[in-house]
Write a structure and sequence with these properties.
It is built from 17 helices and 13 strands. The chain is α/β, with parallel strands linked by helices. The chain has one domain: Aldolase class I (TIM Barrel, Alpha-Beta Barrel), CATH 3.20.20.70. It has an eight-stranded parallel barrel with strand order 3-4-6-7-8-11-12-13, surrounded by four helices. It has a two-stranded antiparallel sheet with strand order 1-2. The chain has a two-stranded antiparallel ribbon with strand order 9-10. Helix 2 runs parallel beside helix 3 and helix 4 runs parallel beside helix 7. The protein starts with 14 loop residues before the first helix and ends with a helix.
């Protein structure tokens, strides 16, 4: 494998070095040299959103652990992760993790499932998070804490019965992704989707009964909701025109509003996408063939590099959400399955990945830019940004700048909360960053599930580092970085 010709973030130790690299590389990221402190610091300021009072500008993004029970309930591993979310100091918990609305929509046999038999344990999981927050920050600290639950159907990437057996259910044929599955790739009918809409609505009612303040109708990362809004070649009521492609989320949202009127709704959206990538002969990611253009398959395709044009459909979708009364939008891009370098920028690839074809900071900049453009177009909507973990030491500095400049309302934290869950608390208190706990994007939290293990920070979290699986995950990463094939 050819090693990337760009520096690791840990080597950019000063603001001057970081800024010089950004300018030299033409990467559109800016940051504050000094972090503010106190209640009026940009990241500490509270915000009122859709009837909620949210205490600061940090958000924990959905981080699935692939570690529930086979019948869809939380395990001790799940509870520990959610307790750490509660102790993070972030005041917005976006979804906790992806929870399937029915069995065939689970991304793994260990994904949480919202059902009658699991409702009580998922409610207890939320209470664990709240109690952890109180234990860390005071008995009334949850008065400005807002917790949602992400609802999903994994669609093309469903593996409900065995981690090594894909059982896809898709929005339509795909000329590249279908070939990556050995076996049939069924397409859901319009009647199937009608029933699935009803199951999302039922799951939302269960989430409200569990105490969640909002649900996220997931439209990102290549899962079914995301695939449907890009199903340009699908016939029938759920494909083709943009109006038809937006029918699925519109029907779910309107159904939830009618059935559970007190429950708020958010949407995590892949606002742009790339053609699927594959590992090239040199180990670096490259486009996997040519996508059809009449019409192209996908939502907000950015393969030509024109982000303004790529976001046109995203703007139309968000305009629909605004009309429906949705006020919470979490922006992301692409998919971890077919273009991970733009969805979760990383220096090291996971077991099924490829070396980054660009400095990962370009991926960070792409998501910051997309969020900023959408925020400018919809100033009364509330936006959460993603892809900040790769910034490592500079995450708080970039995050403070983006919030201060109105480029986003919240800084979303994903992978970094697995290794350093209390980063928000340290930043808000003005404490020094613990460099040894920063996520260095080894991608072991993804390699683990790809090998059939649970997800966690195997290199830095002692809890996972002590597990026997850690040695196997490390061996795979060592081979990947040494240029050997699995």
């Amino acid at each position: 494998m050819s090693r990337p010709a760009f520096p690791r973030m840990a080597t950019l130790k000063t603001a001057a070095l970081f800024r010089a690299h950004l300018e030299r590389s033409g990467i559109g990221i800016d940051f504050d040299d000094t972090l503010a402190s106190g209640d009026q610091a940009p990241l500490a300021r509270s915000i009122d959103v859709d009837g909620f009072h949210i205490g600061n500008r940090f958000c924990v993004l959905p981080m699935e652990g692939w570690d529930g029970t086979l019948d869809g309930q939380p395990s001790d591993h799940t509870r520990r992760r959610w307790q750490r979310f509660g102790a993070s100091g972030a005041k917005l918990i976006w979804g906790g993790e992806a929870v399937a609305v029915r069995h065939d929509g689970r991304a793994s046999p260990n994904q949480l499932l919202m059902a009658d038999r699991t409702q009580a344990s998922i409610a207890a999981l939320r209470e664990d998070l709240v109690q952890s927050h109180r234990n860390m920050f005071g008995s009334s600290a949850d008065s400005d804490l807002v917790i949602g639950l992400q609802l999903t159907h994994s669609g093309r990437f469903a593996k409900p019965n065995a981690s090594d057996r894909p059982e896809p259910l898709t929005a339509g044929p795909h000329p590249i992704l279908d070939a990556r599955v050995a076996g049939p790739v069924p397409v859901l009918t319009d009647d199937d989707l009608d029933r699935l809409v009803d199951e999302f609505i039922v799951a939302a009612g269960r989430a409200a009964a569990c105490g969640f303040q909002f649900v996220d109708v997931k439209l990102c990362h290549g899962y079914l909701g995301h695939e449907l809004i890009g199903a340009r070649q699908r016939p029938g009521r759920y494909g083709g025109s943009l109006e038809h492609r937006l029918r699925f989320p519109r029907a779910i949202i309107e159904g939830i509003q009618a059935a559970v009127p007190g429950l708020k709704i958010g949407v995590r959206l892949s606002a742009f996408d790339l053609v699927p990538y594959r590992k090239g002969t040199d180990g670096v990611g490259e486009p996997d063939g040519v996508m059809p253009q009449d019409p192209p398959i996908g939502f907000g395709l950015a393969d030509a590099g024109d982000m303004h044009a790529a976001l046109d459909e995203g703007r139309q979708l968000i305009a629909m959400l605004e009309r429906l009364g949705v006020r919470l939008i979490c922006v992301t891009g692409g998919s971890p399955y077919y273009c991970p370098h733009t969805q979760r920028p990383a220096f090291f690839p996971p077991a099924d990945g490829y070396l980054p074809p660009e400095d990962p900071l370009h991926g960070v900049a792409r998501q910051i830019d997309a969020t900023a453009r959408l925020k400018a177009a919809f100033p009364t909507m509330t936006f959460v940004g993603s892809a900040y973990s790769y910034l490592q030491e500079w995450l708080p500095h970039v995050g403070q700048y983006t919030v201060r400049e109105g480029l986003t309302d919240f800084v979303g934290l994903g992978r970094i909360v697995l290794s350093y869950p209390d980063l928000p608390a340290d930043v808000l208190a003005g404490r020094p960053i613990r460099r040894g706990d920063l996520c260095r994007t080894f991608s072991d939290c993804t390699t683990g599930p790809r090998l059939g293990f649970i997800s966690g920070c195997y290199p830095l979290d002692a809890y996972y580092k002590a597990m026997p699986e850690a040695a196997r995950v490390l061996a795979v990463r060592t081979r990947m970085t040494a240029g050997e094939s699995r």
